[in-house]
Specification:
The protein is an alpha+beta fold and 317 residues long. The N and C termini lie far apart (37 Å). 17% of the residues lie in helices and 20% in strands. The structure holds ligand MTE and molybdenum atom.
Length: 317
């Protein structure tokens, strides 16, 4: 597989991929002005200032996912972001988050565990970091292919030794209105929280990401550490985590609390379970001008399908 040299991602290619995206976004949303939970504002036509986009580092090794899909350019991955703690505008997040201080950082892990522990950044970086190229599918129907670096969540959970009555994992994002201007946006159930069933959390595909494109995560992508659950809609992949608790009962999540009729706990990517405002049958991949069919579990059915045997996926949306 061929390496992407940093010089290949020039301002010109940024410009072209953006134009291509704007074209496909027009198809996606029908020029929509739907004010959507989980974003849904019409994409801004103005490109983000390229000076704020970090350059990819030299350690990226892969160039496509296991299905042969090329990586979404770094400029898009780091320039088009849902991170409501900073802004509801996807193209404004990178700039607003640029000076977000992520060191020192602490992730407190506790609840129903035998060995509660606080992990600082060095602790997290001591886990063997690996590259995982995953499809990222937002419930708004856009998708990307992203090369993360990180480690399986399971390796961290094993260290704290969940007790036998731990059945779910609850995650929480930092909530500091001095540093995150979007927290002043009223009407949302801050802090951003998420949850997984313990067996989902232990699945090898589920990672804590500390990097993207072979370099540390930029703030807009959830620095210094965020969850990535590639078979679920993007909103499950909670950013900038400060707390992880093992719990007995199914926890709530930010979007379920905000709009329970629209966002369920499971949020598995499924072409046959429409969102009230978006059919999920198809999706728009960044850089592509025609829509493609959505894959069950975002194409990871072989790895995670067994977690849902016998479950009604429409009722448990
Ligand atoms: N704390 C927090 N995590 C979050 C969000 C958010 O607003 N706040 N947005 C989610 C949504 S809707 C998506 S699609 C992904 C986007 O991740 P990306 O910006 O790295 O592509 O982050 C998810 N994690
Ligand atoms: Mo999303």
């Amino acid at each position: 597989m061929r390496k992407i040299h940093p010089s290949e991602i020039t301002p010109e290619s940024i410009y072209h991929s953006r134009r291509q995206f704007i074209k496909s976004a027009g198809i996606l949303t029908g020029g929509a002005l739907l004010l959507a939970a989980c974003g849904g504002e019409a994409p801004s036509i103005a490109p983000a200032p390229t000076a704020t986009l970090l350059k990819p580092g030299p350690t990226l090794t892969g160039s496509m996912d296991e299905l042969g899909n090329p990586l979404t350019p770094y400029a898009d991955v780091s320039g088009f972001n849902n991170f409501y703690e900073f802004s509801l505008s996807k193209t404004a997040v990178a700039d607003l988050a640029r000076d977000f201080e992520t060191s020192p950082w602490a992730v407190q892990v506790g609840g129903l565990v035998d060995k509660p522990r606080t992990f600082d950044l060095d602790d997290l970086m001591r886990f063997t970091q690996e590259e995982r190229i995953y499809r990222l599918r937002c419930v708004e129907t856009w998708s990307m292919v992203v090369p993360w670096t990180g480690f399986p969540l399971a390796t961290l959970l094993k260290e704290v030794e969940p007790t036998s009555n731990a059945a779910y994992v609850r995650f929480e994002t930092l909530s500091d209105s001095e540093r995150m201007p979007g927290l002043n946006t009223g009407g949302f159930p801050w802090p951003y929280v998420e949850g997984l069933r313990l067996d989902e959390a232990m699945n090898d595909l589920c990672i804590l990401a500390t990097g993207v494109y072979g370099k540390p995560l930029p703030p807009q992508n959830g620095a210094p550490v965020r969850l990535v659950v590639p078979w679920k809609y993007g909103f499950k992949s909670i950013k900038s985590i400060i707390r992880i608790d093992l719990v007995a009962e199914q926890p709530t999540s930010f979007w379920s609390a905000a709009a329970p009729n629209e966002y369920g706990f499971y949020a598995n990517v499924n072409p046959e379970v429409p969102h009230p405002r978006w059919s999920q049958a198809q999706e728009g991949r960044f850089g592509e001008s025609t829509r493609r069919d959505t894959l069950l579990f975002n194409g990871y059915a072989e790895e995670v399908g067994h977690l849902y045997t016998g479950m009604d996926l429409k009722a448990n949306f």
